[in-house]
Every structure is written in structure tokens, then in C-alpha cells.
Amino acid sequence: MVSSRHRLVTSRDLDPARRRKALVIEAGQTQTLCRLTGAGSITRFWMTLPLTGQGPVLKDAVLRVYWDGESDPSIETPLGDFFGASFGRPRRLVSAHLVITGGAYLCRFEMPFNTGARIEVENQGSRPLRHLFFQVGYLEEPARTTPVPTLHAQYRREDPTTSGRSFAVLEARGEGWLAGLKMDLQCREWWLRPPLADLFLPRGFGLGILEGWETMVVDGDGANALCGTGTEDYFSGGFYFLGRPFCTPTHGCTHLGLLTGRVSAYRLHLDDPIHFEQSLDIGLDHGLENSMAGDFTSVAYWYQQEPHHPFPALPPAAERRPGMPWKNIAQWALLGGSIIAPMAGLVAVVVWLAGGVG
Known about the structure:
Elements: E1 5-10, E2 23-25, E3 30-37, E4 39-48, H1 57-60, E5 61-67, E6 75-78, H2 79-83, E7 93-94, E8 98-101, E9 104-107, E10 111-113, E11 116-123, E12 129-141, E13 150-158, E14 167-173, E15 176-187, E16 214-218, E17 226-227, H3 231-234, E18 246-247, E19 251-257, E20 262-268, E21 274-276, E22 279-284, E23 294-304, H4 317-320, H5 326-335, H6 341-353
Parallel strand pairs: 6-13
Antiparallel strand pairs: 1-12, 2-12, 3-11, 4-9, 4-10, 4-12, 5-6, 5-11, 7-8, 8-9, 13-23, 14-22, 15-20, 15-21, 15-23, 16-17, 16-22, 18-19, 19-20
Helix pairs in contact: 5-6
């Protein structure tokens, strides 16, 4: 007797005549990709789309997933951020649950649902979203007598971070466990200033934003909070991600640009999920004692029983796009000396525009 059956929904299924394989989503339009009924589990969510002529699309489009007839989405992130895109670009990422390679984006987080699921994409940009191909593979399963926890994903951004206060990565309420975290960090600090002895440490020539550490408070027990030793340490790297970029099944650094002060990293809690029964609060410091300004963007992935805590409002599309790293580039130019600074600055800008330093 078959207990589950594999099914597939694709972008081709949304064309009644089945003549077009890809979608076009007009500006301001919301497109439902699939609507599933009954119990089941999404095992594969794949998509691809061209960036030529629609560069900001990975930030402008919003992915929302609703489980079991809920009115508020359990997943709400910019489209590219959900799959682990770096500063709105498809940097190579190969992990157990998130993959960006070969021109496509793939999520292999197990996504169970109890009575139904709905996946939709809203184009909040000013131009049509063109040529979106997708596939959703899922298992149809027998009706459940006991609901199972569902996947949640939440986007947050703070630009610039607040002096003396940690960046709030997640404030989950209910019962569940942390499954992963993807972050983009960009230095916004004027690190080229006295005392010059601090340039190397703790400012790290702009990468000193990584000197901050994570704090995870489980069920309100602040006295026993989980605290680390530094941002790259939490992401299982070291020495400002020496040897980057790199990818492993559980962690990696997909990008680090010294000239731009940009860092992208991920960690999946495959073997060490952080369980909580009532709440989970995660903060990440920006520099020692939150002393360096940064542009911090995060997507947290976790499972929990419904209902979930309301998500903060998603910033408008223009406020989700990465800021230009001119301040960091200018400081590197000035560091070269007053004579070679103009040439160094010009070279740095040209190289950055060419995509060589992110």
C-alpha cells in the first residue's frame, strides 16, 4: 500500500494551453505559484530567472508561503534572500538545504504541511518580472491526526545598525527549533581614524564588524544565553573567513570583499538545532560592544507549531537593495596616501563596478 505519492507543480502548469514554460509577473502583481490541499511535504523548490535587464529582481520580488490556511505567511522574504543570494546576486552556494549554482536556485528544506499550502510571489518592483521558471516537488501524505511543525523564514534588515544595541535577528514565540541563518553584512563605519593602532584590531580595516558575537536567549533564560566569540566563529569560520569563499553542507562564506567591507555567510543547524518551548531571541553584535556601524541583513529559518509571532513589516523594495560601499572604498583609497589616493580610488571603483570585489 502506498503511503505517500510524489507530485510536481511547475510554471508550465499555470498556462492552460501549456505553451509557455515561464511566468511573467507584472509590476505590483501577486502570482500564486501553487495551492496544495491535504497533508503533505514539499521536498524540492527550484527556480531560475534571468537577471539581465532586471538586476534588482531578487530583492524587489517577495516570496510568501502560507501553511494550513493561515492568514499570515510563515515565510516572507525577498525572493533571492530565501535561497541564500548574496547582496541580491547569485553567488555560488552549495549546502545541504540551499543551493545556488548552474544558473538556478534550489531549496531542499523539508517543508511539511498539515491541511494545505500556498506559495506566492509578489513583484514589488517597477518593471515586469520576466521568465520565472519554477518547480515544486512534494509528497501527498495521509491525513494527520497530530499537526507537525512547519518551516518559517523571516527577513530582517537594519541600515545602519544602532550604536550600543545588537541587531535583532529573530524574535520567535511558540515551540520549535532553529534550523539555519543566512546573513549579509556590510561595513558602514569610518574605520580610518585615530587611534591608528585600532585599524588592525578591533576595526579590522572595516571587517571589524565581525568582532561582534551572537546571543541566543532560549525561553527567556537570559542568565544561560548562548553566547559566542565572534560572527565568523558562529558561522564556523575563523580569522575573518580565511580562505573564503567556501561552502560546506552546514556552513560557509559565499562572499567577502575587503574593498567593499561586504560579507555573506550561512550556517545550517543540521546536527545542533536550537530547541525552544516558549521563545527564541537572537541578537548579533556589530563590532566589539556594538561599536561599529554596519548594514545587516538576515534570513532566519526555523520550525515551529502554529500560531507564530507576527512578523515585522517588510521594508519597501527600494530599502531592501544593498547600499553602495563608497565609504569603504574611499577609505582604502585614502589609506594609500595622498599622492596615490586618487589613482587607487579610481582603480578601486573601476574594479568594483566590474564585479571583481563585490
